[in-house]
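User: Can you model how threonylcarbamoyladenylate sits in this protein?
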Amino acid sequence: MKTLISSDVSLLANLIQEGKVVIFPTETVYGIGASTRREGACLRVYEIKGRPKDNPLIAHFHSIESIEEVCVLGELGRKLLEKFSPGPLTLILPKKEKSLFPKELDTLAVRIPKNPVIREWIRQTGGPVSAPSANLSGRPSLTKLTDVVRYFEGKVDGILIEEEPSYGIESTVVSLVGEHPILLRPGSIESEELKTILPDLILPSPFESSPVLSVSHIPLSPGTKYKHYAPSAQVVIASSEEFIHSLEVGFDPKETAWIGFSLSGNEGKGKVLSERNDFLSKEGEGFREFDHFSLVSTNEEYASKLYAFFEACDLAKIQTIICEAPKLGRGWEGLRNRLEKASRRN
Ligand code: TXA
Ligand code: MG
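Assistant: Here's the modeled complex, given as structure tokens:
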């Protein structure tokens, strides 16, 4: 199949209208989209991703009004969208228009992406556009066009070129269909912010800080496949202390990569790093291309780099990715959740 890779919004909107599948960037991650009004096209998205059929898709809209035409928004839903949309928030709402995909459900996940060009594209498709994250099921979501092209060229009808994702992790998902609102998936919009509108918000448990996994206790069997957001390499979450320690001893630098805050540390840590980098750059062509170390300064920066780093690690055949635990505070919730899922077996 020929994939149209283009920034031409109307050409790619036509593809959706014709029942085709188009990948597009959002502020969170890339989505793989089809018209919510065309069941056949939506089912093709499942086939391309290898996604289990019982996992429903988010419908992407260009405006609050267009959501209200097909869903019951309610006072809370309206307040949430007015405060956090367009942006990385998905709401589960009761459906008014039953024929929308998936027909079997009487609820619909709705979201309005932040980039106005993407909203205009959705408007031109006639909307809404159902889209899960653009990745093979179980693997990390994608945040770089080059990765999208590598996986999906020839498999989808179009790829819309627009601003790359900046948040880097998937939207916060909140259900408004039960007796109490429930946070189904943490993300960049955090529970504390949501609670200003939803004081009785139910959080997934356990939600509080869980103990950091110890590097030394993790079996280092490589290549295991994980179920959620996971690269082929084994992901290990480390406290800052363990993280620094792991830089100094015991890990084969050809097979290991690091992402965290402490890489720029002083008191000799910088020296360890530069010695390692010297070592790595002497190791031949393959290693020069790949930076084994990703330095971040905030949780938000960490989230925005994480999935692309995972992809780069897999391409470089890294076996173990050591991830420094995120800092408590802003950006912690979503990042912690994705790291834990990525580090889990099956
Ligand atoms: O940031 C994002 O949300 C990205 C971009 C492309 O918008 N999309 C995304 O989609 O992450 P996906 O399919 O990977 O995650 C959608 C989540 C899934 O956990 C799914 O189970 C849940 O939303 N979901 C969708 N419809 C639902 C519904 N009617 N009821 C409950 N959960 C639903
Ligand atoms: Mg996904």
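A couple of observations from the model: Residues 4-219 form a domain with the DHBP synthase fold (CATH 3.90.870.10). The longest strand covers residues 30-35.
User: Helpful, thanks.
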